[in-house]
Backbone:
């Protein structure tokens, strides 16, 4: 079935650094969703993208809908300790959604 | 406050027992979903429902059952046929026009 790939799988950064991660697909998507999940909690929707080339921000987070419609990128600027968690991408697929495996972010003080 | 409420937060199942996880939403969403999340793995779809009184099997429906008698409620029963039920269960809902998926806070099910 359809799969989304995310890279990197995990990353360790220093507090204050910027972070970049991406999500790719073998198929075209019309919507990209980015989530953050804290341990033991449900994923929280960060940003939704609906149009190729679209760039959308939510505070220190910025996400872009790739021009090819087969990828999307999430950037976090000036990371802080509470940015720790798993970030994953998702997109609608038929009547359901498909999810990436996630990027685990660790922020070192 | 609009949202998706899952209960209980933690649940323990004995051998041979059926347990039911509750999911209620007041977002007026038509579609509701149940996902299973195992450590270090992605989300896997158990069941979904697009409208009341109708639901469809997902990728890992065996050992689970659902009902959708009301728009706002989509309970999941983990039956004794599910031999490896320990996992984090997530309920979600969406409205087709907006194509956004929202999640509850999850239920951690463990076997005694």
Residues:
């Amino acid at each position: 079935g359809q799969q989304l790939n995310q890279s990197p799988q995990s990353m360790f950064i220093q507090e204050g650094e910027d972070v970049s991660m991406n999500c790719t697909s073998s198929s075209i998507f019309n919507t990209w969703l980015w989530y953050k999940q804290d341990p033991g909690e449900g994923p929280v929707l960060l940003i939704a993208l609906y149009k190729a080339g679209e760039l959308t921000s939510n505070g220190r987070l910025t996400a872009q809908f790739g021009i090819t419609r087969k990828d999307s990128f999430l950037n976090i600027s000036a990371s802080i300790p509470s940015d720790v968690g798993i970030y994953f991408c998702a997109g609608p697929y038929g009547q359901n959604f498909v999810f990436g495996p996630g990027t685990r972010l660790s922020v070192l003080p | 406050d609009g949202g998706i409420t899952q209960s209980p937060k933690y649940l323990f199942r004995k051998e041979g027992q059926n347990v039911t996880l509750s999911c209620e939403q007041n977002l007026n969403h038509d579609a509701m979903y149940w996902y299973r999340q195992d450590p270090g793995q992605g989300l896997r779809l158990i069941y979904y429902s697009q409208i009341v009184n109708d639901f469809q099997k997902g990728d890992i429906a065996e050992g689970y059952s659902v009902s959708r008698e009301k728009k706002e409620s989509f309970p999941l029963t983990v039956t004794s046929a599910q031999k490896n039920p320990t996992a984090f269960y997530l309920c979600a809902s969406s409205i087709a026009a907006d194509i956004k998926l929202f999640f509850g806070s999850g239920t951690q099910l463990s076997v005694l």
User: Anything to note?
Assistant: Chain B has no helices and eleven strands. Chain B has a mean pLDDT of 93. Residues 14 and 112 of chain B are 5 Å apart (CA to CA). Chain B touches chain A through 25 residues (CB under 8 Å).
